[in-house]
Write a structure and sequence with these properties.
Chain lengths: 115, 108
């Protein structure tokens, strides 16, 4: 089945540690996104990529990094510079990231907790 | 600052009644409008997309768009307990802007 796979579903991070969240899609979508959601809040864009080897910062990119070496993969690293990383992280993709109204589809999400 | 506004709720509706969810947006050039449903602890899933003024129906769901007044709404007919969730409105011109969502509770 086509879809977006995020792993791990639950992750615990110690202070000062970098962690990487995996996101893989087999929908042949060009555009991929990372969102952060805090309890009771809406979605905030961290990074997005419209094409392989290119990505742009979203509204809250500080303390995060990404790569897009393959069309199918868009991993997110939460660095130690992100002081309050506890949140629900959502990876998403769309056919393209342009002005068309292409629908965004989401993975199942990853819960990150600082311990 | 482009904004999408939703009443956070909770909106409580009796089972079998019509639930009406509203969303207003600030950017007049927005072209695409989406409603997503999100169950607690889960990722959002698309319910409806709408691009032109008027109504769009899909089963028990109807999306209504009024670009002149800059609002989009979602009606859920014959509400079921399984409709209890948070409903997110998203509006797009060159980027997708999300509302914070309305929590809907369907009372049996």
């Amino acid at each position: 089945d086509g879809g977006i796979t995020q792993s791990p579903k639950y992750l615990f991070r110690k202070e000062g540690q970098n962690v990487t969240l995996s996101c893989e899609q087999n929908l042949n979508h060009d555009a991929m996104y990372w969102y952060r959601q805090d309890p009771g809040q809406g979605l905030r864009l961290i990074y997005y990529s419209q094409i392989v080897n290119d990505f742009q910062k979203g509204d809250i990119a500080e303390g995060y990094s990404v790569s897009r070496e393959k069309k199918e993969s868009f991993p997110l690293t939460v660095t130690s510079a992100q002081k309050n990383p506890t949140a629900f992280y959502l990876c998403a993709s769309s056919l393209d990231g342009g002005l068309t109204g292409n629908t965004i589809y989401f993975g199942e999400g990853s819960w990150l907790t600082v311990v | 600052q482009k904004e999408v506004e939703q009443n956070s709720g909770p909106l409580s509706v009796p089972e079998g009644a019509i639930a009406s969810l509203n969303c207003t947006y600030s950017d007049r050039v927005s072209q695409s409008f989406f409603w997503y449903r999100q169950y607690s602890g889960k990722s959002p899933e698309l319910i409806m997309s709408i691009y032109s003024n008027g109504d769009k129906e899909d089963g028990r769901f109807t999306a209504q768009l009024n670009k002149a007044s800059q609002y989009v709404s979602l009606l859920i007919r014959d509400s079921q307990p399984s409709d209890s969730a948070t409903y997110l409105c998203a509006v797009k011109d060159y980027q997708l802007i999300w509302g914070a969502g309305t929590k809907l509770i369907i009372k049996p």
